[in-house]
Design brief:
The complex is a heterodimer of chains A (262) and B (367).
Chain A: E1 6-18, E2 21-32, E3 36-40, H1 47-54, E4 62-67, E5 70-71, H2 77-81, E6 84-87, H3 99-105, H4 119-131, H5 147-159, E7 165-169, H6 177-193, E8 197-201, H7 205-211, E9 214-219, E10 222-227, H8 229-232, H9 235-242, E11 246-249, E12 258-261
Parallel strand pairs in A: 3-8, 3-9, 6-7, 7-8
Antiparallel strand pairs in A: 1-2, 1-4, 4-5, 9-10, 11-12
Chain B: H1 44-72, H2 78-109, H3 121-139, H4 143-166, E1 167-168, E2 171-172, H5 174-199, H6 204-211, H7 221-240, H8 242-248, H9 252-257, H10 262-284, H11 290-302, H12 306-334, H13 342-359, H14 361-366
Antiparallel strand pairs in B: 1-2
Helix pairs in contact in B: 1-2, 1-12, 2-7, 2-10, 2-11, 2-12, 3-4, 3-5, 3-10, 4-5, 4-7, 4-10, 7-10, 8-12, 11-12
Classes of the chains: A alpha/beta (262), B mainly alpha (367).
């Protein structure tokens, strides 16, 4: 995790929606290709706000965010979209587009004036769908898919942007445990095999600890701790982050222990 | 199943013990992956084909309606041909403008009930037109200059009012949107009535007639030219953003991170729809519901893609209003009703359609 491979670097980021009430109070994190990072913390700890700063939707009042060695705010929207992609919490389309067409919308920033898909765009979209196993329902609309399938379509759409960084905002909060695990496995695989930097806001400590390469624990707009799951899944750090006493329970496979609130 | 596939995870320490879950049957509706399948999408031949077909249809309907108009009056003079052709041109421009405006607003607001008339943009332009007429009378300004400009200012003021009232932190609640449209409509209606009383109490009847929305075969060519140019320019601005409207359907954050300048798109759309609605109202008064009906029919026929929709919907709107106007001119006298303003016909057809949308599609979308 040396500085050269960190494609996304946020240093000392401060942000406030209302003056005097900072949501982020000097947060520094980084993301590198080949690394799957999860942001953990209680509600209101600033995870989503940090993500929105990282994707350029919010401008931090202090601190700097650099993407590929260049200040994030210097990127034009289309240019940024070719480097960085985003997956929302809840997949939704107000229009009845098919999954395939939604994935092709990821090509918006690569497209010409008419915005029609060329052969290259179709190839990229097909690859993205193959990687997320969504080709089988390319012709169906989001409404006709299950929550997990729809979320995979949204991930495929983000991949069609051919980004180096992908940011996800609690992508599994409405999914059952099997689909949740599937999505986390997919993110891990994307980070390692593509390779790209994957940063995911997460609400589930155990799944994140099991599959992420790095955890960032946040509380009250500050980073409590960051590091590998082995370094961060500690009673004292988790208690401090979530403000609740926790037990660590050894797992049968001897991996990162399970976290249970007391 | 994502991890049953072709790319085994090679690194895993943490995920080493694979649970048996992936072996369980997948969702019952899952079909096998077809590797060679390409996502179906709008192709250039399809876009050009449908656009050309709709353009040809619009020209044919325009010609046919002109012919019907001339023959029904059995007046084959050159003047009659010209006046009927101009009437159909006016109808076509107004219809195209309102249909495109409806589609763009629905796309921008992710709300199937948005439309210039329902949102009070038409009545805002109406206030402008009324002031334009007053200015023309009192200051002897040329109508083609004052009317469209004031109509545009009125339309934009209403646009902004509706948006600001309905939005909460940039998000538009569908019900607030419709409600703020109703409020702005009532407000504009009151201004129009009051203004008209003040200007000339004897013209209330005229104003009522104008406010139903009707087309004139005696529109000054200068006014038609200016308004036509405004409509074409607005349409071009919307067309240039047609792909962005599709992406916007996925939400502001997804659209923004895909490269869409969401705020700029909002400004361009409001500006373009304001200009187009103002021009339409300056030509024909407020014609309601066309901007609701036509985009919905086109979505059913051509799908949700704005790249095709923003071409075919305005042309369909033109066809719709040309036929409606011809029906009004032919049926009105035949039923001994005198001249029936076309706005009455569109409102009579559109009201039930609006209720139908509210009760069926829209309920599903908001649940």
């Amino acid at each position: 995790m040396n500085a050269q491979t960190d494609i996304l670097q946020a240093a000392d980021v401060t942000f406030a929606y209302r003056p005097g009430e900072p949501v982020l109070r000097g947060v520094s994190i980084s993301a590198a290709a080949g690394r799957f990072t999860c942001l953990l913390g209680p509600n209101g700890s600033g995870k989503t706000t940090l993500l929105r700063c990282l994707m350029g939707q919010l401008a931090p009042s202090c601190g700097a965010i650099a993407l590929g060695g260049r200040a994030l705010r210097d990127y034009r929207p289309r240019e940024l979209a070719r480097v960085l992609a985003y997956v929302p919490q809840q997949p939704a389309s107000s229009l009845a587009f098919s999954a395939g067409e939604i994935v092709l919308m990821g090509r918006y920033a690569h497209g010409g004036p008419l915005g029609l898909a060329g052969p290259g765009d179709l190839t990229v979209a097909r690859e993205a769908m193959k990687m997320t196993d969504t080709l089988g329902f390319a012709a169906r609309t989001l409404d006709e898919l299950s929550g997990g399938e729809a979320q995979r379509v949204m991930i495929a759409r983000a991949l069609a942007q051919q980004p180096s960084v992908i940011l996800l905002d609690e992508p599994t909060s409405h999914l059952d445990i099997r689909h949740q695990l599937n999505i986390y496995r997919m993110m891990r695989r994307l980070a390692h095999d593509w390779p790209m930097a994957v940063v995911c806001v997460s609400h589930d400590v155990n799944v994140a600890a099991r599959l992420a390469d790095e955890l960032v624990l946040m509380r009250g707009g500050l980073v409590v701790a960051s590091g590998t799951p082995d370094e961060t899944i500690r009673q004292d750090l988790l208690s401090q982050t979530y403000d609740v006493q926790v037990d660590l329970i050894a797992t049968p496979d001897g991996g990162v222990p399970m976290v249970r609130a007391k | 199943m994502i991890d049953a596939g072709e790319r085994p995870s090679h690194t895993d320490g943490a995920a080493a013990p694979k649970p048996s879950a992936p072996a369980a049957p997948a969702a019952p509706d899952q079909t096998p992956v077809r590797d060679q399948a390409a996502p179906a999408t709008l192709s250039l031949p399809r876009l050009i084909g449908w656009s050309a077909a709709m353009l040809a249809a619009a020209l044919a309907v325009g010609g046919a309606c002109t012919l019907v108009g001339v023959i029904s009056l059995s007046d084959l003079t050159r003047q009659m041909w010209e006046s009927r052709a101009l009437l159909m041109l006016t109808a076509g421009l107004v219809g195209a403008s309102l249909a495109a405006g409806g589609l763009a607003l629905q796309g921008l607001m992710r709300n199937p009930l948005a439309e210039p008339y329902i949102l009070g943009i038409s009545s805002g332009a109406g206030v402008g037109v009324m002031m334009g007429l007053a200015a023309t009378a009192k200051l002897s300004l040329p109508a083609w200059a004052s009317t469209p400009v004031l109509a545009f200012l009125g339309a934009m003021a209403s646009c902004m009012a509706v948006y600001l009232v309905a939005q909460r932190r940039g998000r538009l609640d569908p019900y607030s949107l419709i409600l703020s449209g109703v409020i702005v409509n009532i407000f504009n209606g009151a201004i129009m009535l009051a203004g008209n009383l003040y200007i000339d109490p004897n013209r209330i009847a005229d104003m009522t007639y104008w406010a139903t929305g009707q087309l004139s075969d005696a529109t000054p060519r200068s006014l038609l030219g200016v308004c036509g140019a405004c409509i074409v320019a607005g349409w071009a601005a919307l067309l240039a953003n047609s792909a962005a409207f599709n992406v916007l359907g996925l939400g502001d954050d997804v659209a923004g991170s895909s490269g869409v300048r969401v705020n700029r798109l909002r400004l361009v759309t409001f500006g373009a729809v304001g200009v187009m609605t103002a021009a339409a109202v300056a030509l024909a008064g407020p014609i309601g519901f066309l901007g609701l009906i036509v985009p919905h029919i086109c979505r059913m026929a051509f799908g949700p893609d704005h790249r095709l929709g923003l071409v075919v919907t305005p042309l369909a709107g033109a066809i719709f209003l040309m036929i409606a106007e011809t029906l009004c001119r032919s049926l009105g006298p035949a039923l001994r009703l005198g001249r029936v303003p076309v706005g009455i016909l569109t409102a009579l057809a559109g009201g039930p359609f609006f209720i139908f949308l509210l009760r069926t599609r829209f309920r599903g979308a908001s649940a």
